[in-house]
Write a structure and sequence with these properties.
The protein is α+β, with helices and mostly antiparallel strands. It contains 5 helices and 14 strands. It folds into 2 domains: 122 residues, no CATH class; 107 residues, no CATH class. Bound molecules: zinc ion.
Length: 251
């Protein structure tokens, strides 16, 4: 279990996790494996030593506050999260520039929020799935008509009215939503103008199969909106402000 610690005097952050005691391998001389030395590292001990006599406090991470412009699986990236000591909220920047560097945690002033910039359908995935699952081949015209109909549904949609599918996305700026029943009904009704007979039945089943967790989920694309916020409280070391170039996501 990771634990976030803040030095109130220096405004510095330490993430005490399962890795702060990992050994570091140092290479001495020559190229023989026995020359590799394992050096026990205890970063937390170093932090405590550096901040001896200072006031330390535990921060708890605010749920769902994590944002980043890169996929969860990407190891080299900058991300942000929020934490609180119960009275005050803090914005923390987590970063590393190389894969072999430890993660760096810093307090930054200002705030961020995710803003939805568009809602799109998963056109490629839908087409691929239609071709894979239907045991007869649909004409390209019909596939295009279906995609156009789906696309029209996603236009001007307010995601606040839709149900979010948690953890369906590998990317923090792409969030998946389930179409509501009214839109599913509209889709089915309009499919009658495109498909008939066994085609319609197959499409109807396809819609029911994929509307809740499959290719028919709508994808909401977000950007990270950063706002500068002046902190009035006097600090020994004021937190770093958000840099201008740290505006992420699609413009
Ligand atoms: Zn300190």
């Amino acid at each position: 279990m990771s634990q976030l610690i803040r030095c109130k005097n220096c405004d510095q952050i330490f993430m005490k996790g399962p890795f702060d005691k990992s050994p570091e391998y140092r290479f001495d001389s020559g190229h023989l494996p026995e020359n590799f030395q394992s050096v026990e590292r205890d970063d937390f001990k170093d932090f405590l030593f550096l901040h001896r006599g200072h006031q330390l406090e535990n921060l708890s991470i605010i749920e769902d506050s994590y944002v980043s412009d890169k996929a969860y699986s990407e190891p080299v990236k900058t991300s942000f999260l929020k934490a609180t000591n119960g009275r005050e909220e803090f914005v923390i920047k987590k970063s590393r520039e190389r894969i072999d560097e430890p993660l760096k945690y810093e307090l930054v002033s200002g705030d961020y929020r995710l803003k939805c910039i568009s809602v799109v359908i998963q056109s490629e995935e839908i087409e691929k799935q239609l071709r894979k699952e239907l045991n007869f081949s649909l004409s390209q015209d019909k596939i295009d008509a279906f995609l156009k109909l789906m696309g029209a549904l996603a236009e001007d949609i307010a995601i606040e009215d839709l149900e979010r599918i948690p953890e369906a996305s590998p990317h923090p700026l792409e969030v998946y939503y389930r179409m509501d029943d009214v839109r599913v009904m509209y889709l089915l009704r309009n499919c009658r103008h495109i498909f008939e007979g066994q085609e319609y039945s197959a499409i109807e089943e396809f819609i029911h199969r994929h509307k809740d967790d499959g290719v028919l989920l709508l994808k909401a694309i977000h950007k990270i909106q950063i706002s500068q916020k002046a902190r009035t409280r006097k600090r020994a070391t004021p937190p770093l402000p958000f840099a201008k170039e740290e505006i992420f996501g699609q413009k």
